[in-house]
Amino acid sequence: MNKLVYLVPLFPLIGFLINGLGRKSLSKSLIGIIGSTTILASFVVSVFLFMDVKAHGASVVTAFNFINIDTFKVAFAFQVDQLSSLFLLIITGIGFLIHVYSTAYMHEEKAEHFGRYFAYLNLFVFSMLLLVLGANYVIMFIGWEGVGLCSYLLIGFWFKNNNYNYAAKKAFVMNRIGDLGFLLAVFWLIAKLGTVNYADVFAAANTLSKFDVTAITLLLFVGAMGKSAQIPLYTWLPDAMAGPTPVSALIHAATMVTAGIYMIARSNVLFSMSEVTMNLVAIIGLATALLSATIAIKQNDIKKVLAYSTVSQLGYMFLGLGVGAYTGAVFHVMTHAFFKALLFLGAGSVIHAMHHEQDIRNMGGLKKKLPITHATFLLACIAIAGIPPFSGFFSKDEILAAAYAHNPIYWGLGVAGAAMTAFYMFRLYATTFLGNFRGTHDQEHHLHESPKAMTIPLIILSILSVVGGLIGIPEILGGHHELHHYLSPILISEKAHHIEHSTEYMLMAISVAIAALAVIFAIVRFSKKPELKDATGIAKAMENKWYVDELYDAAIVRPLEAVAVFFKNIIEKSGIDAFVNGVGKFVNYSSRQLRLVQSGQVGNYILIMVLSIVIFILLWFYDAGIIRLVDKFF
Amino acid sequence: MNAIIFSALLGVVMMFSGILTTNKQAIKNIALVCLTLLLVANLANHYEWYSIKIDTKQMFSFGKYGYFFNTIAITATLLYVFVSGDDIVKVGSYGAEYFALIFFVLCGVTILSSYNNLLMLFLGIEIMTIPLYILTGSDKKNLHSNEAALKYFLMGAFSTGIMLMGIALLYGSSGSFGIESIVNNTSITLMKVPILEVIGLMFVFVSMLFKVSAAPFHFWTPDVYDGAPSVFTSFMATIVKSAGFIALITLFANKSEELGKLWNILLVIVIIATLLVGNITAVFQQSVKRMLAYSSIAQAGFMLFALYSRNEIARDGILLYTTAYSLATIGTFAILIKMEDHSLDGYNGLAKSQPLLAATQTIFLFSLAGIPLTAGFFAKYFMLASVIRTGGNAAIYLVIIGVLFAAVSLYYYFKVIQAMYFKEGNAATTKITPSFKFALLLLAFLIILFGVMPDALLGLFYF
Q1: Where along chain A do its domains lie?
Q2: Which of B208, B280, B414 should be substituted to probe chain A, the one whose Cβ sees the most A Cβ atoms within 10 Å?
Q3: Rounded to an integer, what distance in angstroms lies between the CA atom of residue B5 and that of residue B114?
Q4: Which residue of A214, A442, A601, B145 has the fewest C-beta atoms within 10 A of its own C-beta?
Q5: How far is residue B235's CA from residue B244's CA, in Å, rounded to a whole number?
């Protein structure tokens, strides 16, 4: 049964090859069908695998030997276990919906670009599946790099706009910084343990010294920072919104950016061994969650709000990882994938209806014109705000409860962030869908609900957003936490929550109450008269993202450029170039001189030959002096 | 033995075929058939299917190494005739005779690959060079050709004189012409300074250096290569030069102990001088033909590394080197012959008018320069590796010098590529036939094949 695992990444790869090679000859509808059905096929196989794992447990399937150097071996192997099968379902399931959605959303593109789009998207799914399925860090790294590449290609999909290209480049460079950390960690593992297989690494983990574990996990975390957009490497994600909206939904919200969480959850054995790293993960996660939440409050671009919200939610997941709530983090990955994909697709539907208008100040009152989009968007907002019994509540609550057990301050800050989340999401909702329409007359005239290929994925995702949390109902609410039991074989047992049930009820009530208040406040505040004026003071700083981009520019980019200019002008031009050209000139000069020896006179030639023979013979016999001297040099 | 007898006989056959037919195409085809016969005869020796047995009284010592070199030389000649055969018969009005002379040269080559006696060495050298004097002057109405032939003959006679003198001295000291007996008494001891042996050996050595155009005995090379008809320059620069190296290697192989340090110092001086003269002078040449003449000196410098190290790697490496060098040089000259203008500027824009010629030419030049994925890379690699294997500081310095000069060689080889690809112009060529293109592709393919799998060639040797 689990031999079928080959098929899971194989289908998208085939789709990529067909769409990539046939993009100029295939029709749009065929491209769309190929792109979507390959993912659907992967999804079906993933479901079987999931069932199989549930019934028979985990296994490793080796395809072939990938690298073979002396005793160091890397197999091209797939890890089929609880964690990876769950991720498979998320990736292929949501991936399929977004592919279907894309067939309508990207319909205006020329066939060639349409094919390119689906080829990239299939390649992305292939890479993401490889990342999740790999049974060692090297295979994971292949997928890790592959998704980075696809992210770059898709952010810069409309490559005629140079700003988009810059955004793509920024994403790529930021990710590369993280990748370096990942690579170093893998090298470190190889140096210390001589293996990269998960099973072997985790089995031998306790032979590592404290310092090694801390260094390896910190470096891995640097990789996660890049891919999952955490401080200080988060600034690429909001810019990544330059890509088509379904891409933002799939790559920059639901799947790729959770790769960091997957990787840390996968390496939970290592991370749990290092107190330092765990604390750092929690603090960075919390700081990211709060910082990006404050920025999201003042953004006016519908996708930017969602982007910062994504960064913020990722921060919560890292908080969960940092306090040892691995299940909570994975749970939140799943529910977040549902409602954030839904939010992005809903935003895409709005943008589609508004003819590529993204500024929410020019929207308003879309409730009547886009009924399905509105309803599903509202459900997603409730889910992300953490109102029970929607999915976001359960996962976020689990993380917050674990945070409280670890340190009540984490909990307090986490709840503050959750309140901000509820606030900016409903600010977004109210400004976009409530009130009066503020766009141009022309836009109003063309407002329309999106086609079925877009609305059906929205409906499916909204159902998932509502009920997705039910697989993780905590015991105090009378549930069994199915997910926890399912994942328990591979995630080491979390620290027991030493919280009284009464305390837990109270915490839950407080966070729900605060979130509800924020929701009501936001609706009341923004539904009638949204803020249209430019912000001032602190709000302005928030609107400008706390000037973090400018700070990076001044602190890192400019000094680097100055060094580069120095090297280019001083070292390169007057140092290296001068030397290199000097050698060339010298050779040329000697050539001109040496050429003159070739006089064309046979007499001269023979004279030189005879003299040479004489010298040779003298050299032979004169075994003192000159010969010893020559001998010294050679 | 087969190859020696057959090459002489087939040479005579070629000569008489000139009486039967004057059709140039037919003559070329007869030559190709005869060369194939010769190749088969040699392979029959190599794989012990059939060999003519004559008691040579230890004049020869036949072995796989010699047979394998014969195979390389004959195959290279076959390819050479295949690529440039049409141009050989065009040089003058005696097509068949040119081929006959080429066969006689091959007879000398095959003697040189298996000799075991100084007299045979002398015979081989003479049989090989005398036809070359004629071939050099074969363009009878061209003053340059005549001048080159005369110069070649004068200096060749001079070097032959030196060689004979050396052999006489060696005979005088040891009473034998066998090569085992000669080099054993040449180390200086307290008891005896072996003047006769040393000077005799030195003379033989120097005259051999002359044949392979090592500095400072290279002066004939640029003038003769430049003056001779290009087709014959191609032959001289490849097969003939390779044979000279095999003769040198045979003379000095496995005698490192006796030769001692002093020989190495002389060799180092010769190697550096050869690399210097060849590479540096080539830089300034404006004529591609003359540049190739100097480049052949530079390549000789690299082949001399094998003589310096005299170990197993060197013995294998020199075979690979001669193959790689011969293939690339034959191809380069074949294209040169087709060019209307032999100067560098004549190649301007060749990539546009004859893309295939330009592409194969680029591969040939890559191989000559030693760029990876071409046979030339591994050829140079084996040479340097053999030197490293000898150990010692001198080896390291020698390798560094070799690499530096290889870098210089990139300059003049790439000037041709630059002219073909990056300069405007309409490089004029004479008529290019499809079979010519095919032959070039075949050469390029072999170069890449041996560049990717050098074992393919060396494997044949150990087969």
Answers
A1: 544-593, 599-634
A2: B280
A3: 13
A4: A442
A5: 13
